[in-house]
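2024-03-11 09:14:02 INFO receiving multi-entity request
2024-03-11 09:14:02 INFO entity count = three
2024-03-11 09:14:03 INFO echoing inputs for audit
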Amino acid sequence: MSEKEIKNLEEIFDQKIARDEKIEPKDWMPEKYRQTHIRQMSQHAHSEIVGMLPEGNWISRAPSLRRKVALLAKVQDEAGHGLYLYSATETLGVSREELYEQLHSGKAKYSSIFNYPTVTWADIGAIGWLVDGAAIINQVPLCNTSFGPYARAMVRVCKEESFHQRQGYEIMLTLSKGTKAQKEMAQDALNRWWWPSLMMFGPTDDKSTHTAQSMKWKLKRKTNDELRQQFIDQTVPQAEILGLSIPDKDLKWNEERKSYDFGEINWDEFWQVVKGHGPCNRERLQTRVNAWENGAWVRDAAMAYAEKNAERKIKKAV
Amino acid sequence: MKDNLIQYILGIADNSLILGQRLGELTGHGPAPEIDIAITNISLDLFGQVRSYFQYAAQLSDKDITEDDIAFLRTEREYVNVLLVEQPNTDFGYVITRQFLFDQFHYLLLSALQQSTDATMAAIAKKSIKEVSYHKRFSADWMKRLGDGTKESNQRVQQAVNDLWGYTNELFMLTDADKQAIAEGIGVDVTLFKKEYYENVAAILEEATLEVPTQAFFQKGGKEGVHTEHMGYLLADMQYMQRTYPGMKW
Amino acid sequence: MSDKKEQKKNWPLWEVFVRSKNGLEHRHFGSLHAADAAMALENARDVYTRRNEGVSIWVVESKHITASNPEHNGELFEPANDKVYRHPTFYDLPDEVKHM
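2024-03-11 09:21:47 INFO inference complete, emitting structure
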């Protein structure tokens, strides 16, 4: 294809997206669109799968049967969401195994938030409330993104995720109405998860490289800073209901902006974790690698059995 | 009579509790996310059953207790699950074999329990048996995949069968609570389907190209509250919150 | 028992179709990996019907699906655009005629 032809195709492609038409896997798409989507969708899928670990850490210690089944169901949903997203990524011609390989080798990224440890039960509440809360804000616009399989996967994810945040908030509510020890546990969790949650929206707009392109492809509808502000504005009143205080001395209502002003995010910490030096990066990755490697003989067995069975069927037919 | 029924309920429910706990440990660590989801589903089914049984037991009790008191606040000697279900997740071969050996029993137990003269027990059995039919199919299918898969998988799962076989006989021992519940028409005489159990198990092992162990030595004790050394750690984990923060609501 | 370690094969991809209740068609729900059809059904049940979404499941290995090529969309689908006589509104009838 000549450069001119490609340019022409790109124009048609851009117009299609501008008209809110969806792009489907077999449609022509610019190579950059394909690569960006493989990167973002697989990163999203990896986040779901790695995200099972910090919460999974408390399944065996959940304090009541009711909490235990809710947590099991939630972590299970995350596996499901990872699957939906891997499948959507696979429609672009990359295999699940390649995607795992990218995760396991450290080439692919996942959400940095999961590199923080869950040290008390209240962390399970804080994750549901804050981390899922932030994730929902990031994810809801993706239900209308331009790539069909991604949009469809996200519709399902968002529908299922609505219980996750409520589950977390309910845990926080119970703790904050509980004994002194429980309330302290809740406050401590909020203190530790607040800033990392704000970092989930990514670098500030002036430092974010992908935003313009992502906006055009509807991978993003609002900028990082806008989404972060939205999260803060909706979360502060929720903290007040809990009677917990947000660990930011600069946080205050700005009447003019009708929004909260907030303090400086520790970007050094952000980049440190992104680059692989958070408290749990090594452990999380190693856990995934172990699960995959220890499962190899199981996957091979199932495949060998399936092949033998298929042969047996053919023999029977002959 | 009521105390005996409570004890009888525990004899059934503790198996689901401890096995559910073991399966819950696996969430996030399975050989593929698809299998992870399936195993978690089984765990959720078992905890659902546990809650029905324990809520009923709490209601029967003269003391002011909840399902969580029963689940989390007994001493090790008071848990009466069989030794089989507390065995660790050594590898996926052990996980599936443990599940298979239990599901085959669980299904027969619930089939009979549906006829219990105690309406609540019969109702729980009726609801649970649909779940357990699925578990039974799932674990039997995987026994065949692992047994008749590769040479490595065959060896691994055979090892698991050999190691766990010694815990099967305990499934068919009757405690005093069992005997009394049977006499009252509430309980199930599990000895009646022991033969059927071993026949069903043998048939699937054979199909899975696995050998049926011939050993005659069996372990017992769980039903009397004397557990393997694994149990203490499982409970330390499971009871951690309730023990560290006594009397709080979660 | 032959062990073919070298030619490692991954679980193939399957497409999942779920009938959410009787009277409705099976709809494409998504995909998953499984070694064989039986496992694909089990996985589909666990992955896609956790919230009571279905009464019937179909699975088909993705490679068995033949898809039309979007590049041929013009010749395949556009010719139907101007065949308005296939639609009832093409025919003018007086308002007095009922039940038609």
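2024-03-11 09:21:48 INFO post-check: The interface with chain A takes residues 4-5, 8-11, 13, 30-33, 35-36, 39, 47, 50-51, 67, 69-71 of chain C (CB under 8 Å).
2024-03-11 09:21:48 INFO post-check: The mean pLDDT of chain C is 87.
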